[in-house]
Amino acid sequence: MGWISRLYLPVWLRPLIFYFYIKIFSCNPHEMYNEDLKSYCTISEFFRRKIKMELRPIDKQSPIVSTCDGHVLTCGKVSRGLIEQVKGITYTASSFLGVPLTAGLMKFQQQNKTRSNSNYDYDDAHSYAESLLRYRSHALYYAVIYLAPGDYHRFHSPTEWQISWRCHYIGHLFSVNPKVANWLQNLFCLNERAAYYDKPFQTIRNSNEILLKRADNFGDFNFGSTVVLVFEAPDNLVFNVKPGDPIKLGQSLCDLDRQNDIDVQDIKQ
């Protein structure tokens, strides 16, 4: 699909192709910032189209908002170092996040450098996840959002944070359709991906750090994609969504149980 999506389309053919695309994938053409179908030179360009941001109100009270349009595949607390791919299928945070960046992770790596992959167990996965925490009273949480071909395919900042590190992991380009996620173990670890880390997740100061405000646009996808959010938060965090729920950019993902008065600012991306 990659090379086809990048083919230059004759101007006269564009409305016809994009009309069928809109029908097949149930796009909302009235949300498009530029509704002139003739202005999109390729399928890829149309796929990464902008929308009218006033149609995506941003929740200002929620600690974390959705970074994109899509459907929630899974969400919850990282347990024993495991992230749920779909119900009943998990993968380790270490295999997904890859290269250790924090001082705690470097210590973890040093302690386990003599172990082979065959000896890796869930206790190691748990130790890895624990080493990511900045505050011992907190926990790691995750939310996985699937973007179908008809969805708006730009992704935005889920909160106010600082990108201090970006890692690009070379991998496969397996489909991330939920049907595939239901049977292919470690799908998101096998696939090519980019990981963005907040300041607490790195040990060497980066002079090119990027400050992001809530809902700032900082990337886009080329075709059917998935966003995996992994973040630290107080133990009283509760999700406002459940697996299978449709979700829009800026919609609240979670909140804090107000019975326990913990500052929202304690949440670290």
Automatic annotation (TrEMBL):
<keyword id="KW-0443">Lipid metabolism</keyword>
<keyword id="KW-0456">Lyase</keyword>
<dbReference type="GO" id="GO:0004609">
    <property type="term" value="F:phosphatidylserine decarboxylase activity"/>
</dbReference>
<comment type="pathway">
    <text>Lipid metabolism.</text>
</comment>
<comment type="function">
    <text>Catalyzes the formation of phosphatidylethanolamine (PtdEtn) from phosphatidylserine (PtdSer). Plays a central role in phospholipid metabolism and in the interorganelle trafficking of phosphatidylserine. May be involved in lipid droplet biogenesis at the endoplasmic reticulum membrane.</text>
</comment>
<dbReference type="InterPro" id="IPR033177">
    <property type="entry name" value="PSD-B"/>
</dbReference>
<protein>
    <recommendedName>
        <fullName>phosphatidylserine decarboxylase</fullName>
        <ecNumber>4.1.1.65</ecNumber>
    </recommendedName>
</protein>
<keyword id="KW-0670">Pyruvate</keyword>
<keyword id="KW-0444">Lipid biosynthesis</keyword>
<comment type="pathway">
    <text>Phospholipid metabolism; phosphatidylethanolamine biosynthesis.</text>
</comment>
<dbReference type="GO" id="GO:0005739">
    <property type="term" value="C:mitochondrion"/>
</dbReference>
<dbReference type="GO" id="GO:0006646">
    <property type="term" value="P:phosphatidylethanolamine biosynthetic process"/>
</dbReference>
<keyword id="KW-0210">Decarboxylase</keyword>
<keyword id="KW-0594">Phospholipid biosynthesis</keyword>
<keyword id="KW-1208">Phospholipid metabolism</keyword>
<dbReference type="InterPro" id="IPR003817">
    <property type="entry name" value="PS_Dcarbxylase"/>
</dbReference>
<dbReference type="Pfam" id="PF02666">
    <property type="entry name" value="PS_Dcarbxylase"/>
</dbReference>
